[in-house]
Amino acid sequence: MTTTVASAVVTPAATATATADTTGLLVTAVRAGRTAEVVALLDGMTDAQRRAAFPELKAVRQELRTARWSADSRRAHPALHAAGAACQTGAAAVANWLAAVDMRWSQASPAVLLHVLGDRDRGWLADVAHRLAQRPAASNVSYELMAGLVRLSGCPVPTTEAYVQGWLTHVGGDWQRGGTVCDRLRRDPHLAELVAALFRTEGVGTQLGWLSGDGPESWTSALARLTGEGVLDRRSVVDACVARLLRGGAPAELRVFLRLLKDLALTREEERRRAADWTALASDAMPTVASHAQSVLGALALAGELSPRRLAQVTEAVLFRTEKKLVRAQLVLLGKVLTKNRSAAGELLPAAARAFGHEDSDAQERALKLVERHVGKVTAAEVREELAGAAEQLIPALRARAVGTLGATPPDSVPVAHEEVLPPPPQPVRLAPAPAAAVEVAEEISALLASGSDVAVFERALDGLVRHAHLDRDALLEALEPVVARRWWAEGEPRHGHRSDDFFARRHELFDDARAFDLLLATLYGKVRTDTLHRVVHDGLTNSGCAHNSLARPFEARVWEVAHRLRTDPQPFLLATPTWGTGLLEPGELVDRLDAYRRAGARVAAVDFGQALLRVRRDNRPAALAAAERAAALGTEEGERLARRLLTERAAPSVTRRTADTRILVELGEVPDLRAEEFPAALRLLGRPVNPDSDHWYCSHWSGAMRPHWFALLPERPELVAARLLRDVSEAAVHDQQGTAAAVLPHLADADGEAGEAVHLSVAYGLGARHAEDRLAAVDALLVLAARGRLEAGRLGADLGQLVRRGAVKPARLADAVRTAAATGANATVWAVLRQVLPVLLADLSTGGATTSSARGLGELLAVAAECAERTGERGSLPHLSGVADRRGTSRLVTQARRLREALAAAPAAA
User: Pfam families, per this entry (predicted)?
Assistant: First the structure.
């Protein structure tokens, strides 16, 4: 009897069915966010089944992208994160999946990821670890995941920015358990490699500082302790720390490494071996680091372990610096060394004489006293001649003293004529013609959306869009496809649950160039409904209630009008496109455009034409009169309006100064020629009175991106814009706000109209700004206005005097700003301003009415004024100056008052 055994044969169909079933279960678990079930399913799947499941997981990911912040998406993403990583075979693909942007904020835990990936080849795991470590630190790749992959693979530890910063946070975080930072570092098997990487990685110093502070449990203390125990190689750590300080960087970062260097407590031998490094740091490092290096070198010099030649080299470098504390300390050090070593005078005194040319007259006087005290120790005639020659750099009063003590050449009795140096007035930049091809329009719009623009770039791109929408709409749409594909409103699903039309209908404000072009492009592609455009254009825009409302609404109304015409009646081109980058439009060019509209039978857009009238140049009267005659001859209503505009003189509004807390602001009356009914309602807002007290508490124009376009609304009338922005600019001085003055003042200086009360007050606030970049912008504005003949120095000085008295502007900040202006060669301009500022402050000082804030820094202002007077050869008297100069003592205030009085009395101007 034969027995037949039936073998179980697994057919391909059965395998496919099993795979499909497994994939279905996996996808279902992923969608439900059941991570534990996903891990269990993955453990039971073959490599082939995992690969087969990946396309389904990829489809789920694509689906979830359209609703990234929904509850379903947040629930599913951790499970999807783990499953997608486990179902791919390539190291690069897995790394990309793990670090993807859409996975960044809802990831699987490192433990889960290490479990599903842990059965791979060690080389593959090392590849993934290093690929993840190469990602930018902002990618938010988990350090625990990277470190786990390094541990499983046994590969060398990565020392990239992402890995090192992750390690710092992991070891130093407050949530960590298991001893102190020092204990956790001591247990780290990769300590030496990662500590070495600390000194090479940018940004870690700041992170070290806020992670653990500066107490005994800080990172710097821990590293110093481990170095002392021999766990870390001392020479390597010290060398790396010094090299990091030499490389420079952000002050907050360097302070941490300086703290580490101090915690390491270098021996005298270690300090002597690095004398060249201390010299370099004392010469070029930030003040705190330079001061430490200076103290180390000083200790070596006083111990006789630094040669006079090396000390002279250090001295020349330090005395070139502007920090007064470093200069004083170096001169004090030289005095101590010269007292101990008479033979060093021949090398050290010429180095000390470098301070004769220092910008601070106190430093000059200290250096002169030092040289006078020790010049008797010099035996070489050539050294004495060198010292006498260097004395010619001294201020006149000190130079006259050096004639007797050092044998310096007496000053020339004939005053040297001062030649004022001002920057060349900025030349206007003419706008290039609109792009000739639709592809060029698309390229310019793409660049604008990516990085913003100025008035010229925006207006050129806007005109190009309008022209090509009129000429060949289909060609324009085709060219814009790559640009539009990246915009949020082009997505198939709604954004935040709203259609793009709803978004624009509810948010009329155009805060920047990108928002304006988003509206225009969305209109072209049918994403904004016609009735929405019609409603906004005809019903008007919402009043924001803030001081910027009258500046923002005209710009926004014109863009909405352009969008409406793109949909209903495309214009051949825009009338208000300026001729120049400031927004100014030549009258003859506007007449030519109106004539082209007349011949083409095109309908003029109200806001666009109104903006053109506001921009048209009227200060060139011959050109304006000729253009008015041509405009009237067109026989159109717009031609008649243009002719009247060109022939009508401007009506100046009434101006009233108002005080608010410590500030001085400007109130303007109504501007009749801007309130005419022939202007659209949005443009008539520009003629409304300006009342600084009526500013609404809420303002949506915080970004400031639109400010350049506001100045282009009224290019010949900067006062009307400056008055509305004056409170903003004052914040730079009063509340230390950053960036506002730097964003506004260049446009005020470049404007084509006259500078009045508001412009001068804006410059005054900028000169007293807290931040250096704002003060520098104010200095540039001051110099440009002076170069263009539009600066009233007396008015600016009077404003500054009152602002300092009220506490809105601090004298020390003002002194820094005017010193910068004087350093460019504008000594007469600066003196003309300061001669109005100083009497106000000196009067308060002499009568006891000065506040602490107004008195502090007054000595610095007097120093700048004295230098300007010396260089320009000014003569005369300054009210209340003698009362301060006759005081007892040698404070900076008194010594600089005496210096200024001497300069105004008799001293000849220095070359």
Answer: DUF7824 (PF25148), DUF7825 (PF25149)
Per-residue model confidence (pLDDT) at position 440: 94
Give the separation between CA 446 and CA 428, rounded to whole angstroms: 26
- Does residue 665 sit in helix, strand or coil? strand
Distance of alpha carbon 306 from alpha carbon 523, whole angstroms = 75
pLDDT in tens, 825-862: 999 999 999 999 999 999 888 776 666 656 678 999 99
pLDDT at 648: 87
Round to whole Å and give the CA distance between 466 and 438.
11
Question: For position 508, what pLDDT does the model report?
Answer: 61
Q: What's the rounded Cα separation, in Å, for the pair 824 and 784?
A: 12
HEC string of 51-90 equals HHHHHHHHHHHHHHHCCCCCHHHHHHHHHHHHHHHHCCCC
Rounded Cα gap, residues 643 and 647, in angstroms: 6
Measured N-to-C along each axis, helices 621-632 and 637-647 cross at an angle, to the nearest 10 degrees, of 160
Question: Whole-angstrom Cα distance, residue 727 to residue 547?
Answer: 9
Crossing angle of helices 455-471 and 473-484, rounded to 10°: 130
Give the whole-angstrom CA distance, residue 757 versus residue 748. Answer: 12
Contact assessment for residue 30 and residue 112, using Cβ atoms and an 8 Å cutoff: no
DSSP strands (E only) in 574-653: none
Token readout for 231 is 């766990």
Please answer whether residues 696 and 542 qualify as being in contact, where contact means their C-beta atoms are separated by less than 8 angstroms.
no
d(CA 308, CA 304): 9
Measured distance CA(157)–CA(191) in Å, rounded: 10
Q: Which phi-psi region, left, alpha or beta, contains residue 353 (left: φ > 0; alpha: ψ -120 to 50)? A: alpha
Sign of CA dihedral 425, 587, 431, 483: positive
**Torsion 479-482-483-484 (CA) sign:** positive
CB 688 within 8 A of CB 553: no
Query: How many Cα neighbours within 13 Å face the side chain of 906?
Result: 6
Three-class DSSP labels, 834-887:
HHHHHHHHHHHHHHCCCCHHHHCCHHHHHHHHHHHHHHHCCCCCCCCHHHHHCC
- H helix or E strand, kind and range, residue 15: helix 12-32
- What DSSP line would sit under 157-209, residue for residue? PP-SHHHHHHHHHHHH-TT--SS-HHHHHHT-TTHHHHHHHHTTSTTHHHHHH
Q: What would the 3-class secondary structure string for 337-376 be?
A: HHHHCHHHHHHHHHHHHHHHHCCCHHHHHHHHHHHHHHHH
pLDDT for residue 905: 86
What are the residues whose beta carbons fall under 8 Å from the beta carbon of 648, sequence distance 6 or more? 673
CA distance 538 to 556: 13
Which residues of the chain register pLDDT less than 50? 1-10, 14, 493-498, 696-697, 907-911
- Cβ-contact 834, 872 below 8 angstroms: no
Q: Match 């020092």 to its residue by tokens.
A: 182
Q: What per-residue confidence (pLDDT) applies to 660?
A: 81
Round to whole Å and give the CA distance between 449 and 518: 9
Written as one letter, the residue type at 205 is: G
Q: Is the Cβ–Cβ distance between 782 and 767 less than 8 Å?
A: yes
Amino acid identity of 572?
Answer: P
Torsion angle of C-alpha atoms 228, 229, 230, 233, degrees rounded to 10: -30
Distance from the Cα of residue 280 to its chain's centroid: 29
> For the CA atoms of 429, 430, 434, 437, what is the dihedral angle to 10 degrees?
-70
Whether the Cβ atoms of residue 26 and residue 50 lie closer than 8 Å to each other: no
Q: Compute and round to an integer the Cα radius of gyration of the chain.
A: 36
Q: Is 668 helix (H, G, I), strand (E, B) or coil?
A: strand
Residue 719, helix vs strand vs coil: helix
The number of CA neighbours under 13 Å toward the Cβ of 400 is 12
Structure-token pair, residue 404: 């007797």
CA distance 296 to 281: 11
